[in-house]
Design a protein that fits this description.
143 residues; Nucleotidyltransferase, domain 5; 3 helices
Length: 143
């Protein structure tokens, strides 16, 4: 099974691919306002050399509570790929610690997917959205 996962916290991003039993990962710290270059991240885990996105069986992202914008960006990026390739997408709750990287997201996603006993409808990319444990406190513009 082949799984691609991304985790970002706003100032640190990691990406990981599981290719059967091999795990390739890459991570990088960056300024909070800088958005990662996904082609750069993908190239660092072997995209176009050892796998193509069409080869991936499952896409996953960490539902990180650290950065609302970063999590939405990753979710939207992977949702677009998963929908275009008709592949499942899964949101994995962030463990809320610094050592929780994309490789753990990929491993948990793979376990959950295999445990689903072919009930793959629950991994419809249209339903894979970020969720937040705390109520948002932003002010609405119309009020």
């Amino acid at each position: 099974m082949k799984v691609l996962a991304i985790k970002t916290s706003g100032d640190h991003t990691s990406i990981s691919v599981i290719l059967n039993e091999e795990v390739n990962s890459f991570s990088m710290s960056h300024e909070r306002k800088d958005r990662p270059d996904w082609n750069f991240f993908l190239a660092n885990i072997g995209h176009k050399r050892t796998f193509s996105l069409k080869d991936i069986d499952l896409f996953a992202f960490a539902n990180s509570q650290d950065s609302y914008t970063a999590t939405r960006t990753v979710a939207s990026y992977l949702k677009g790929i998963a929908v275009a390739l008709t592949k499942p997408l899964m949101a994995i709750d962030d463990e809320d610690n610094k050592s929780f990287e994309a490789d753990m997201v990929a491993k948990i996603a793979k376990e959950n997917f295999l445990a689903a006993d072919k009930n793959y409808n629950q991994f419809d990319p249209n339903n894979a959205n970020p969720s937040y444990t705390q109520e948002t406190t932003f002010k609405k513009l119309d009020e």
